[in-house]
Amino acid sequence: MRRLVAIAGVALGLAAGLQASRGDERRSGATFMSPQTQALQADDAANPGMLSVADGQAQWSTPAGPNGTACTACHGDARDTMRGVAARYPAIDAVSGKAVDLMGRINLCRTRNMGAPALPAEGAELLGLAAYVGFQSRGLRIAPPTGAAMDAVRDAGRALYTRRQGQLDFSCAACHDDNWGRRLAAAPIPQAHPTGYPLYRLEWQATGSLQRRFRNCMTGVRAEPWPYGSDEAIALEAFLMDRARGMAVETPAVRP
Amino acid sequence: MPGSGRSRPKSLAEARRLVAALALLAAWPVAAAAETVPPGAVAVVGDGIPRPLTDRPGDPARGRAIVVDRQKGLCLLCHTGPFPEQRFPGTLAPDLAGAGSRWNEAQLRLRLVDGRLLNPDSIMPAYYRIDGFVRVARAFAGRPILEAQDVEDVVAFLATLREEPVKKESP
Q1: Quick one: A61 and A119 in the same domain?
Q2: I need a labelling partner for A224 at 20 to 30 A (CA). Which of A72, A115, B3, B39 fits?
Q3: Helices A2-18 and A35-42 sit at what angle, rounded to 10 degrees?
Q4: Number of domains comprising chain A
Q5: Cβ contact (<8 Å) for A223 and B125?
Q6: Could you report the per-residue pLDDT of A13-49, keeping only the tens digit for each?
Q7: Are residues A189 and A250 in the same domain?
Q8: Rg of chain B in Å (alpha carbons)
Q9: Tell me, what's the ipTM?
Q10: Interchain pair B125, A167: CB under 8 A
Q11: What is the residue range of A176's domain?
């Protein structure tokens, strides 16, 4: 009984933290979940996404590349240096002038600075590092970078968000703006705020990225999914993160 | 030698299968000769499509099976309806109960073929259209969601749904 009360308390606390401020209709996807799944996210000892965080923590200090350097060589203790970083991605990479997401940034660091090969998209290593870096922003507000270059990327993302796609001819907005809270078969449609990536999805039985989620939705409407790391995926991520500006980072979230 | 000719049937069962296959082959030209209106050549008249897409009358039982099939008809992802055995229908679209009293077959046919001709903002997919789409997955490119006969079967089934939905009492 005490355990039940504790779970209910945690879930209530989580729900309160996930509701945007008064007058703001924005809601984290977590608020659409069952109390049990909310409790799973809220309890670090039970949240399966914490395994990816632990994985990333171990990699953070593991040398890679010909010089045997680790992330720690430049960035030291992630708990200090990575605080708030994930809340500001995607961002413009100064060298290429292109927008990159957090996983793209990690791979640029490896290839440019460490001489190590890029980690494969959606592999446990890259997801782990992104989860560990993202975890350092948990509870902080999403704060995307300003500027004309990012605005252009976000505009492209907005256009993709509202464009109908696939044989079923759905836009993201048709479900996530116009019909959130209703049910697509058994599943409640959330508002599509990417507050907790990488996250553990029960359906996947795995930690995965926002880009994997895009691919799921696109497959659902029978559209050709975007490749990992494509300009379209980064643009949509940039638009959605701006749309979620001010909401709390939840990484690693749990979703059904 | 493979491909050099047919060997003789070795058993009665095999002979039966061969006869069945031949019967199917014999039936094939008849089915292929059935006149089908291709996507894009469908004639809209007013708010409906009066002419059936095939010259074979729709089969309501087959239509019902398509409607409840979540990979084929997809209807119950968004619609609820008089399907007591079906769990977890969607809540994005109107109840299908009473569809046959709200609309005639011509109107139902247009709503299935391309409902956006009536309401451009509708989320209802166009079930019998093949152009005007963006980034269709390779596996589905160039073909409609349902074939012409499927559409006729679904129209025939929806036309049987004469009873309006039961009004739920407010809690």
Answers
A1: yes
A2: B39
A3: 90
A4: 2
A5: no
A6: 454 456 556 678 999 999 999 999 999 999 999 999 9
A7: yes
A8: 20
A9: 0.86
A10: yes
A11: 142-255
